[in-house]
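Weekly puzzle thread! Below is a chain. First person to post its structure in token form gets bragging rights.
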Amino acid sequence: MPVARVKSIAVVVVFILLGVCPSSHAASGDAAATAEKQGVTGELEYRWYCGQCHGMNATGNGPVAPALRKRPANLRLLSKNNGGVFPREEVRDFIDGRKVTSAHGSREMPIWGMALRGNQPGVYVPGKPLTEQEAERRIELLVDYISSIQAK
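Winning reply:
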């Protein structure tokens, strides 16, 4: 089987897996309380939305990484590459889609802020779209988790 075909199949399989993962998106009540009731953690959010590309160990070696034009970032080195300071706002804005860096080339990473709110065509997130507050809370959980795994 040609390599390009295998890569295409891998990408499709990952998106199918993302579509059938357990839904954690109830759209009622306080976002933090809802997330807590559902057992949602930053690590769980990472595994659902980031691990396929960035890898479960966050070093950029996920199963879909070979199919991408540009290798996903090693998320464990963000602080190290930023003078020892975790770039919290930049990470949050990049996940949310409010920040696009030309150095990254075209954006292959889904804009999770829009996807969580049900506004990104072509990206399926199971369950009801989240409210703005709920989406922000989920992104903050994710940013907190990425901050917690930084290399020392």
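Puzzle host: Confirmed. Bonus trivia for everyone else. The CA atoms of residues 18 and 49 lie 7 Å apart.
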